[in-house]
Fold these 4 entries.
Entry 1:
Amino acid sequence: MSKKKFNLSDITKSKIFWAVVAELLILLVCLIKRPDFFKISYQPATGMLYGSLIDIINRSAEITIIALGMTLVIALGGTDLSVGALVAVAGAIALKFMRWDVLVYNTPGDYTVKPFALAILVPLFVCVLMGMFNGFLIGVGNIQPIIATLVLMVCGRGVAQIVTNGKQFTTQYSPFRVIGQGHFLALPMPIIITILVIIIMYIFVRKTAFGTFVESVGINRSASRLAGIDATKVIIIVYAITGLLSAISGLIYSSRIMSNDSNNAGLNYEMDAILAVVIGGTNMNGGKFSLAGTVIGSIIIRTIVTFVYYFGIVSEATMAFKALIIAVVIVLQSEPVRNYFSKKFAKNNAVVKGA
Amino acid sequence: MANEYILEMKQIEIQFPGVKALDKVDFNLKPGEVHSLLGENGAGKSTLIKCLTGVNHKDAGTIILDGKEITPTSPQDAIDMGISTVFQEINLCPNLTVAENIFAGRQPMKHGQVNWKEINRRAEELMQRFHMDIDVTRPLYVYSTAVQQMVSIARAVDIQAKILILDEPTSSLDDNEVKLLFDVMRELKAEGMGIIFITHFLDQIYQISDRMTILRNGSLVGSYNIDEISKVELVTLMVGKDMNTIFNLKRADVNPDAPYMLTASHIGIKGSVEDVSISLKKGELMGFAGLLGSGRTETAEMLFGVKATETGEIKKSDQSVSFRQPHDAIANKIAFCPEDRKRDGIIGDLTIRENIALALQARRGFMHPISRKEQDELSDKYIKALGIATPDAEKKIGELSGGNQQKVILARWMATDPDVLILDEPTRGIDVGAKAEIQRLMLEMCKDGQSVIFISSELDEIIRCSNRIEIMRDRKKVAEVNGEGCTQQQILNIIAEGASAAEEVNA
């Protein structure tokens, strides 16, 4: 048994396996209902690929990006409720730099602050600071994460309102449009950004020892401290990263609508992000985490939403329907069910070996 | 016979997964006596109390209270039978008034409503009985710990208790408060109540107890009248002569000219440990003896920066250093295996490999990762060197036995190649073989020129391995003796009697 063998019983034990199974099942139902569901077409006019699958991944970008940060937060045994509010903050600040109110100003870009880079960098910077504030409350102040991040969850949208004087700005500034509506290599830009973020995050947490530190602190903070890990620093970095990712997500969102929306931007994102992490197999108690699982979890959530749209489920029932599917996915992943299947497969294996 | 004892516990056995927590223990209590229950941590004191108060359930044996056999199934059940317990940590509600705390859950009623007048009147009466003239309508938190302790005793007594269990009630009290508590205990005793008293302070046992029962490793050592046993004999019985296994271990020789590796002068934290000075030479093994709570662990924690010192100075190789957190100490090549392996040592869900590499990685910082290949080499090396019993390095450390977990933690620190290794009770709760193995490793490290501080409750271990032995008592260092030619009896004398005995040894 020295070599690692392809072992069905081990695979069925893993949570990611069940997340993938759930995703495939939903897609299968979609395919049966609409045979052209998987069809992807290239439109030379726009230079982009179109199709339901592309759309699902494109639309899941905002949640996927945030959920990557949330994965680290949850691995620490925490939660970050402020991510949705930070999405609104990032959008408000970006638009503050680019507002072009057609009624007041005549020339496009009249009110655009140059250089354009500020419209991108300032929101990122502010959200990192806000994330560090969360991390400070939790790491230094020892405040429970759910309470500490509630502060910015509540007041973040207020900050966004103050930044824009309570107004909704719009812009036509085309470089900004690229973020949410542009394309690269025939793929929508949000997908490209998501892939980049995934790669950078993966390198940062798995190619350095940061991921191990996060897991270690999440499993046993006291022992980690005694082993020489600066737990406070790890906590602050993790929340700062989540702040940064919320800002990226916020820029994509506001670029899609070319506007800021302090009330609705990022609404309930914290819940979807937490859900994506949990579906992806990371335990809410902290410890071992899986970035790949989180990405799948986020795509599942978006697939369900698409599913609901496509099948003409009455809009009043949308939320209930979404909840129903999620409940099924989570039950599939629960320990008793996984153990049941794992035992079943183990038995089958044994029979095969015996014969 | 039924009249002589108010409580008889016979042949009590409790089995926890993997260990026999209590093995055929007898305990009895007369009305109107203070009976001390003694033993080191893990000896089974608290298990016995929990069995009596219905928290744990006995697997065999009988409990007879007042001539009737009882089987308490829950703490409330035990209280109803007349067994009251006051725990070390005060479990009252600080935001309720004193009177409310005393009568919570059993308020006197009048016409279907709580009779506040009655509550306050009776509470006041009760507190006055304890010589406490306080306003019972004020919230509990405004009063000192001692008063709060009295309130919880008052509550326990007012429940018409036949037996009162006091579990370390004095650990947070000062001398006057202890005296007050003892007065109250004497009055209760005079009224015929049986009191079970648990404490780590030996002097207090002799002040207040009539009899004592000693437990060790879950077994009964014996019950004695207070005047039939001396403090020295008591400590000997508590600590116990160790196993018959003969280790062929010899303490390492230290070059008398060896430079000092770590010196601490007059370090302390107010209210914890005060004014400890040590000087550790290169290649030396320094033992720390003393009872639990004597300040051994606190001293080690100061040397490792777990708690920052408030007074005094620490020098590492003649350079003054200040440790604000463990990271600082690790950067200075100091390592520390904590006493509570589960809470402060292992990262349960990480693999053996990750646990071994952790401290070295933390010292390097996360931006300079140890490559997977290096990690594998490191863990393979130590799994072999320390004889860690595991199929491979990818097993979670939480799934290993206690002794193997301890070896992994040891490997974690050996991997950092420390100058000074501090081990706090590294041999507790692990089997004899692993114990011998760990002692052998310590001595080998000393031969290689590393210095070791070894804290243990087992004196024979300390004497066998140490070059010098520091003896702690009541949060102070009371003596330093040479490991060569010193006997268990001498150390027990110092632990029991304090510095006066130390002078005789050194004379």
Entry 2:
Amino acid sequence: MAERTVAWKPRGQNQLIGKKIPRIDGIDKASGAAKYSADINTPGTLFGKVLTCPHAHAKVVRLDLTAAEKMPGVRAVHAFAQVGQEVRYDGWPIAAVAAERPEIAEDALRAIKVKYEVLEHWVDEEDLEGAKQAGRTKDTRRRPKGDVDAAFQSAKAVHEGYYGLHTVTHCCLERHGSHAEWKGEKELNVHLSTQNVSGTAPQYAKALQLDAANVAINCEYIGGGFGSKFSVDQWDIACAIMAKKAGRPVRLLLDRATELKIAGNRPSVFAKIKVAADADGKVVAWDSYQWGTRGVGGGNVSLSVIPYLIDDVPNKRQRSVGIRTDCGSYRAWRAPNHPQGCYLTICALDDLAAKLGEDPLQFFLRNLDRISKEHLRQTFAGELKRAAELIGWKEKWHPRGQGGDGPIKRGLGLSMHTWPGRAHQANCTLRIYPDGTVESLQGSQDLGTGTRTVIAITVAETLGLPLSAVNVRIGSNKYPFARASGGSTTVGGVSGPNRRAALQALWKIFDLVAAKYEVDADSLEARGGKIWSNGKVVCSWKQAASLIGPMPLEFHGEGPKKDGLTSEDVGGVQMADVLVDTETGLIRINRFVAVQDCGLIIDELTARSQVMSGMTLGIAYALSEERIMDRKTGRFINADLENYKLPRIGDIGELVVEMYQPDSEYARGVVGLGEPPVISPGAAISNAVANAIGVRVPVLPLTPQRVLDALKGGVA
Amino acid sequence: MPAQQHSRQRGPSFSRRDFLKGSGAAVAATAIVTAPQEIDAAQESGPKVTSAEPTEVTLTVNGRNYRLKVEPRVTLLEVLRNDLNLTGAKEVCETTTCGACTVLIDGKATYACARLAIECEGQDIRTIESLRNGDQVDEVIAGFVKHDATQCGFCTPGFVMATKAFLAKHPKATLEDVRKGLGGNICRCGTYKGITECALELARKGGA
């Protein structure tokens, strides 16, 4: 140990960082001991439920709550909607009740009398002409670059195609909601299923006219968020209001159907795309016209991701139409805009490669210099090469449509993605107690990425202690502030401050040890629960900690800082090997490979899990998952887990994950990982299907019906 | 509640099993002309629905007896979570689809949301909480943690219970067996690969 500068250890010296370490809260999760907001049962807790509107667009003409209010066992009723108000989609909250038992709450909802005047609606997200006629559209465009028409004229190959993705929901397994309990009139204690522990108290305070300091937010565990749980929702406020009215705690979670209808979704996009390559096989021109919906507010997928990744195209034109639909509003869905931009772009380029009669691997390798994030080009080259080895691209790839003689065809496809993933703002408090116990506190949360484990590894590695020596506290807004978990920002966000604070603590301990044992502080090193000097043990960690006196040592860590602990921008490559049954239209994933960089890896086990997570969600939206709106009634007709199809354990094939970890990646510091792996699956799987059957199935999810329709049409 | 309505709801008793077996109307019609004792004698042992009013029921959960009064429409899952505070079994789909509430009833993996509490009297109900005693955990739990088969963790207890029952029945399960046998549970985060590896490792050791 020499200079006192903040940095990660040299890679080879790590005892914990970069190893495959099981998560420290794994047993609590797997044994059911972990308490989620949905599990909070403080004495006297009432059960809240929400009544919603069954119409896509209507006016409330009568709302009578009296029968519900008078029902025995009902303790509070709350109205969201007012007479005369317009309600804008299926699932719009009308009223809520809190009762002694859930079944009584359900009876009370049935007793609420609502009359609607049903109004015209529009829910179709793909029918652009219809939406225009219904006056539901708004155009946006970017200033064109270069001379697009001339570039198409002189190009060697031009491809025109149609592509699209339907809306999917977040479908968190823990439904949105909270448990609210008052302490007197002015203090509120909430267990909220949230990705934003430190940021939600002010939202309660504003809605309920409280002091933000008097709102306690707790979220020890959250059953899925995926970008849909950043804010306090109106039903959470209603939960708190009813708790106050009843003088009792209330737990209110949306029912499953409402969860799917109104608690967040990923916008759809459909596009006509024209793309061209020059004589060298480089992309020279792009022209896209896209439309889709973000729900009742209109809008569409951002043009900033069109074309995606291979974006440094000399001639391009992008136009977009947002459709206002009477459907639940979008929320940030894991890697907002990117899965859609990636799908449209990479599929169109894959079709262009086919038009050139070329292996897409060669085509994409040649076009890496069209990636404007120059510093990632080499990473992509390395990842493409490695992924190709893992999937057996050289042996198994064949030109389109040569996927076998029988009815079952086999094909390979690839895709690439990028994501910033820079560390978010976060603070922590690190305490060393005189008995050697260590504690780290922050108002962060664990979406399932392993926040607690990452913090424990960082601190234990720094102090030379076993993982079990570090007590990690998250999930309360009374701990030091940390930003919301979104945008793949948390692992970098929490590891930086904890490394900084732990180094401060270590240096202080070294000074105390140096004085007591008369050794040079700069010679000291902490490893294996002991303090060492030049290869000899000076004292145990416990003895060292005893030197601090009766009070704990406390350090404050902040971040992000420009000290190299964290950075940004990752790439990532995925390749799929699929089987397509041309008689039934059924697709099976054979093997699905991901090669993913993310800078310095704190825990390889949980990092790999994030990649598998992205791939599995990707298989869902590529093959089966979609919101189906009934055009006539305007209702979300598959808002249940029976018909909103998610893959099960037998539906994902063999997932192969390799973390791309040359030393140059370690040197970059920590970069976020949660989002990138969910971006590519749609394109990789669709391209594999096109390779297998020789035609593009243009719209995701690739249901058997869409596969059969594409085979019937027979157009590439 | 008016007395008249009350007595109507109390009506004659019939077994839920018979009701489900054939025409409910036919069973009810028979019941009207038969004294209640006779019906009881004629019925196989099993829960009886006598009224929509709260009914006393004794449930044997994790080896302990709990005496409760619940309405017949209340599910086992609701009782476990809301009355017994055994919250390891999660409520997710509400439509007996996802397996997050899987418990063992007489050793068989069962969706707790698919059973009424009053149906389960006299049966051995085991919840996820029975697989842990302080620091001692069942090997399925340990296997899930080792293979990182948990992310947000909300589906995990149900998946652990399903895996426990599956391996008891198929101690030498193959990959294909796992893919079919654990298809009753849904994970949204994407932990299927870890679960598969965990189940196969335990199967190589001869089950769990």
Entry 3:
Amino acid sequence: MAIKDPPKPVEIADEKKPSVYTDEALAILSAAREGWETSARQAFEKRPPWKGDFTTVSSMDVPHLVTAEQTADIDPLREIGVPGEFPFTRGIHPSGYRGRAWTMRQFAGFGTATDTNERFKYLLEHGQHGLSVAFHLPTLYGYDSDHEMAKGEVGKCGVAIDTLADMEVLFDGIPLNEVTTSMTINSTAPILLAMYLAVAEQQGVDIRRDVSGTLQNDILKEYIAQKEYIFPPRPSMRLITDQFAFASEHVPRWNTISISGYHIREAGSTALQELAFTLRDGVEYVQYGIDAGLDVDDFAPRLSFFFNSHNDFFEEIAKFRAARRVWATVMRERFDTQRPRSSMCRFHTQTAGCSLTAQQPYNNVVRTTVQALAAVLGGTQSLHTNALDETLALPTEENARIALRTQQILAHESGVINTIDPLGGSYFVEEMTRRMVDGTFEYFRQIDELGGMVEAIEAGYPQREIMDAAFRYQRALETGEKKMVGVNDFVLEEEEPLETLYISDDLAVEQVAQLSRTRESRDAGAVGRTLDALKKGAAAEENTMPLILDCVRAYCSVGEISDALRDVYGAYEEPAVF
Amino acid sequence: MAGRRILIAKPGLDGHDRGAKIVARALRDAGFEVIYSGLRQTPQMVAAAAVQEDVKAVGLSILSGAHNALLPEITQLLAEQGADDILVFAGGIIPDQDIETLKEAGVDAVFLPGTNTQDIVDYLNDRLG
């Protein structure tokens, strides 16, 4: 059962079709392919295929064989090219992983700032290169730890950050001019960026020169998939373009957005949908930036991406390679960018959380290894490998270490980093890459017809596409058409329970007490003044970033700053459909 | 049909709604009348919706770890409103060690990752008669 066949490649008249082969060579290849088809048919007469469905995990049809003939019209220069040059199919760096391997960046955060600070130091001591912060849900939604909606959530899914005082503890003893930090934060991204810069200021770091990191800040995928939105789409887009403008001037090494397919995939999309919706979100941010009066070549080089790496090895590799080709093409053709960096798709990858199983959890190490290998062969810039227990809880220290070791084994033992894009030129990989590219442009056409991505989201289009794919996949699992080892096949009757990290509800008391102490010791006048100034600026056209920095320096909380913005922009609620 | 009306709700801040929506669809396809709450529901909102809609069962989907705080509050609010005949079941990421406590607090069943939706349908058919 194919969920969605990719559209057929555009047919170009034969005489125009560029090919690396002469007509004579093509005729020979064609005869050879026909010969193979005959012998394959005969083989199947003796022994039929052992299953009916040879499709990817996304139910994309997979050709039985791809030959040189079939890929002869893929232009080896303009479509594949060389690493470091347009269209970057083979990678964005001419040096590949020899200049520098990918950044090993494990997402971490739980409990209080003190707990997470210890975990950060542990990971850095064990060879991790950069930090990646997981915030708890109240911080993501702009509520303080003492808010009614924070009940039961404090420190559970990430670290509890209410004010600058918590952020100071989080990065205590970690020099912000030496590490780069990625923060998974969206609706409240400007507040957390401001807190990070305020800590860097306190450390005496030269922000313009030495502060580097990434904000997720991708609000469109929140409406599409992860649902951690606060404000309606349009004011949310304005907060993002404010950050583009602020960062390009004051924090030029900061990646202001990480346009994310990860959550779209986790919500149940296919690989193609993940690719297409993510890149189309990227197009939307670029368009809004241009519409806000920014020069595309000023902010586009700081856009970065974040993809999922799921189980289907070659589908994932094709997706990563296609991402670079599509982005380069669309940036040059649609936005007429001049700087090469503006059309480079740089991305972080995380292995697929939704592919992990609670059953026989040690199998997850194997799944994660295959997924991580696909990301590396796909040319990722940085990588998070999931721990084996992440479908049950946040990882224990030991399981987090095994996840990091998985990357180190790939980098130092497997040899896959020695040559650039080792699968480039593979008939199958190039064909799958082309199908991904063509399928993405077809989705772009449909979204453009709806008026753009904001309009498509308002119409519920990507949400429906994803939900339908998720439901079909669940059905395929339940009918046994798709297998999940340990879940619907190869099941164990009895399993030993796994020891997992348990986060006590008691820490909420501690966190709320810390927040009260901060509220008592700060200058109440400064709090009122900075929040008022933010409301005025947000209602007008002023860039909100410097105003939020003032609030943060006055120790206003995430909840107070978010409430100020809620007063101006209102809150968004999506229709509850399934 | 009134005997087969179910509320699927997402208590707390957790935005992971893939499971809730899949269960909602599967129950609808199995002939139940399903109401989906949408995201970010407080215990009060969930209990009020269950009573107003006169449902036979409430399915609570939660993956954030806030289950110990939120689920017992929902069963308690239902009891206070004389609605403790409403069957409460839950699904999501819930550590084994918490399941007993939740059951003592009135959560009738807990479905963990990897559950077949048919098992939930069978469970409801069995419990609701």
Entry 4:
Amino acid sequence: MLSTEDDILAAAQDWRGAGRSVAIATVVDTWGSAPRPVGSHLVIDGDGNFLGSVSGGCVEGAVVTEALDVIAAGAPKMLEFGVADETAWRAGLSCGGRIKVYVERLD
Amino acid sequence: MRLDLLKGMNEERLNRRAAILVTEIGGGEQRLVKAAALSEDPLAAALESALRTGKSGMVEHAGASYFLTVQVPPVRLVIIGAVHISQALAPIAKIAGLDVTIIDPRTAFATQERFPEAPVIAEWPDAALDRAPLDRYTAIALLTHDPKIDDIALLRALNAECFYIGALGSRKTHANRLERMRAQGFGEAALTRIHAPIGLDIGAVSPAEIAVSIIGEIVGALRKKPLRAEGQAA
């Protein structure tokens, strides 16, 4: 079943209610052919479980790693991802777009 | 984000009310602005425009950047008539992400076996719509071919300002329908909002093809023209 943005935010509330630490990542800006629209969410818990999508799979791994830092530190973070860099092995978008993702802890 | 803000967002969505979460980028300050309180917010103009398009995005105001998480209610499709076209329309609409309900008082048609994917309500439209009222985030397709049934729902749909109203029937049938609605006091501006004959003109023949033409028209009504802000006159 496809998860809608609604299911994802409802899950964030449920997870927090069940005592899990939770971060919410939101696509806040896109340039070029970005895979997921502005406003898309990824919800991450303290164990690295996640629900939703901010890029259709390209950068979720990196966002989850950053989210664990945000859960630990408490301050929100703005992440930016661009075209995949062939020489350095790091997260990028093969479609050629760029996205900005805001990651915040649910308190 | 504070848990109470997230709870507020989820609650507004459950109750089919629009709301916007305003996040100041940098400071991280957040507030939830409900549709009813929009005009009192310092960002009122930007919020109203965001609500009309239904799209989240960044805005600048007085030297600060804000992200608006815009939340409009899930889009519904109410199908009046548990007919052959509806059997194709219900699954296609569901795949397209619409929340589908079928209403038909004729119990021979309105059986759950014929519609495995969507709830079927075997009642007159007024009774069914009293419990789950139409609103501007709802599309309605009138497919019974029977004015006794369709007109009840059409009156409700015009009053509720459904973002899409489609009605099955020939041009002659539709002309008669418009006469009945004029007799009920509706003006031309309201009546031009009825899509009839229903569906995009793609030469559809079979019930499934007609269903495709209807869903195409609904998506067009949803995405090409911004949804009107709540409280704004027709």
